[in-house]
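By way of example, what follows is a protein record of this kind.
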Amino acid sequence: MAITATENDGVSLITVKISYDLVETDIEIITSGRRRIPAHSGVLAAASPVLKNIIEKPRKSHGGSSKRVIKILGVPCDAVSVFIRFLNSPSLTEKEMESYGIHLLALSHVYMVTHLKQRCTKGVGERVTVENVVDVLQLARLCDAPGLCLKCMRLIHSKFKTVEQTEGWKFLQENDPFLELDILQFIDDAESRKKRRRRHRREQNLYMQLSEAMECIEHICTEGCTLVGPSSNLDNNKLKTGPCSAFSTCYGLQLLIRHFAVCKKRVDGKGCIRCKRMIQLLRLHSSICDQSESCRVPLCRQFKQRGEKDKKMVEDTKWNVLVRRVASAKAMSSLSQSKKKKSEVLLKEEAEDFIRIRKTKFF
């Protein structure tokens, strides 16, 4: 395919001639700069349903040229040339995308060239900047490109202070207040989602900490750990077990248990914040525990029996939600720990097999 440019009779009229070996061109595309681009009607009709409808319409004959004429105006002449060439052979260079990506996106939308629209949406999205993001967003909305709209919205959200200083944003404020409102609403929704995610992460961390506390309470009351433990395990001639894997949580609970055992405010009925916290932890354990008959955690059975009698405790929605989420966090924690133990066992077995094989080779 060869492209040449000629001038007719000193008039600023440029004709682009595309020579094909097999089929003669039977249609001309006229651009804004009065450029004439020869093309094949069959190729254009196959590539674009809009062009197909235009070509199939009956033509009014005024004499002169026998070729049908289609006007594509409002975009640069070179962009139209690239567009027509793409319809003939679907290829697009990076330089062409850089120079005419926005124009090709508009043409591909108007003439319903899906594969070109997809390429332009991706190409323009990769090249969008703070300076042109408002213009690209407006075009993306007109061209029904939701992916590109979302990318522009996210860029505006992340660089809003910089975007506010651009000419595009100032023009938008003066001429399209509805789009400005949509952008501000998107930013507000994005900030709300971010706050919800942060709150959700904090809640999950709290549930995991409470789950770890429940495990530590069971561990302290059944096995004992460093400072306190069940009376049956205490022996003056023997040392207590060493620090556990969750030592920081376990140590804090041990101090709380020791305080709970000797607190005079709790005994006198004056109330103590630390004792109330310990009672809440014991009540939470009782709500989760499924072995209250054999459980060695203090007050577990008493809280179970009290909960069955007290309707207010049963109907406390917030407390029930807390119990369910802590129980879920505990189950997830135990599952991850079991997987970790299995992987450690497998690694240990593989290491032992490797050592045994090496020994058999050398000895």
Strands lie at 2-8, 11-19, 27-30, 36-39, 68-71. The CA atoms of residues 21 and 136 lie 40 Å apart.
